[in-house]
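User: Structure tokens for both sequences below?

Assistant:
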Amino acid sequence: MKRIILCLIAIFALAPFSYGQMQEIGVVSYTFRDSFSKDVPGTLDKIKAMGITNIEFSSLFGKTAQELKDLLDARGMRCTSLGVSYNDLLNKSEQVISNAKTLGASFVRIGSIPHSGPLTEEVVKKAADDFNSFGALLKKNGLEFCFHNHAVEFLPAKGLINGTFYDYLIQKTNPDYVSFEIDIYWVYYPGHDPVALLKKYPDRFKLMHLKDLKKGVARNPEGKGSSADYNVAVGTGQLDIKAILKAARATSIKYFYLEDESSSVDQQVPQSLKYLKEISN
């Protein structure tokens, strides 16, 4: 099995992929979180061998930003986006900005809004205000703020807007300061259409997480019941990846990152890359 994996990696270590305006496919560090937690240099080597040089880091994995940047530079790799927590950006903004700039990232993104219990109108209204503040501060420092969706933001925002909490966050934030990273899995799983969302807000999306949902898995409007191993190789699941990428061509998305939360990433990431290359030809 190990020889098969190495052969797949060698086969797919090709030139950067493109799909219309889509640049090189990157990867989210969370995909290889288990490997990174044990061996950062070795994991970077493995990712590079797959033909991937662009990483969105959601952790520094025990390294300083400079140490991680040095490891990337030594391999001709780069970090274009840094994922941090809402509270870190709220309370440790100077450190976040310093880390992002040291890594050479263009974007700083958060992936959740702190709340206990169901998401409420008050929490979302405060989040929109905070997003505007985060974005203004980051822009002042040469960086761009993005919010990454999960399922909870797609609940109806009955007391705020005729739409979802996600609609509210997009419509009530300043496009000069606030952009969005669309995770297509977490749009689709709670029952929404990534293509329709991309067409509805084409100028607000700057980043995308490419993922797929296992065939036969039922969607849940509250996003409940999802499993990491519902993540399958892109192009083998329920999502219409071709239609999504076609719609993405008409948006402002700059970077596309594979994210695979499963326990089979060493096999599935090369499969995903192969599929994306095939549909780009």
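Moving on to the next sequence.
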Amino acid sequence: MANERQRDRRVLGAALAATSVFLFAEVAGGLLTNSLALLADAAHMLTDVGALGMSLFAIWLAGRPATDTKTYGYYRAEILAAFLNGVILWFAVAGILYEAYRRYGNPVQVHSAGMLLVAVLGLAVNLFCAFLLAGRRGGSLNVRAAYWHVLSDLLGSLGAIAAAVLILVTGWVQADPLVSVLIAALILAGSISLVREAADVLMEAVPAHIDMEELRKALMGVPGTADIHDLHVWTVTTGHYALSAHAVVDGTVSEDRILDSIQHLLAERFSIDHVTVQLERRNRAAQEPAHF
């Protein structure tokens, strides 16, 4: 996991450097050309800078060792960063939609040629950053959050290019706020699933790839196991899953063998690598009160 974080750190650092450099150019371009689409994209790029910086900090924090008060360490810092990144995107969307509504009713002159130049440069930067992060997006939810920021910004650059061409060819200045709305919708679509997934991890929901009924049946099939209760499964951080359960044994198989079989089953079939199982005799299980 440490090597994975190191690779994530490198790609996030490169993306942060490229995004930070272009941010100033896009803000200046948006102000000089009077383009809301460019300013909307710049606002999102500003959240990209914050998101990438937050993601880098979260990776560093997640690498710190566990303590007596944080026995799982700081793994959840990456999930919290992903959640906050998604919520920040919602505020950016609200600001873009408000300004688009205001401008659509009161059109302003846009310098389309300058807008087109800045948008093309922005597209190049975003393509570079998306290429860097694409190979890592299947791992950490934290990196996936950063990737969504960059991808939606890339789509925003494409929208700004389309609006600049429309204004340049037809003079229809309302294309600028309308494209801004499209950018906002794309940002919102990507962020909703991101926030929901991060919230599920923070609420310790069952991981999406695990069917609890199938899991329970598989555990019941372990030789020597008579019953399973108080079964809980959750995600510690992306790709790191935990389980706790009480297993009632019938005495026909040694307890060490039962534990070995359960751990092997969970690791191989369900990718659960942190397992806590309490073994009980039938009479003890019958006397035990119900647990959450």
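User: Anything stand out in the second?

Assistant: The longest helix spans residues 2-33.
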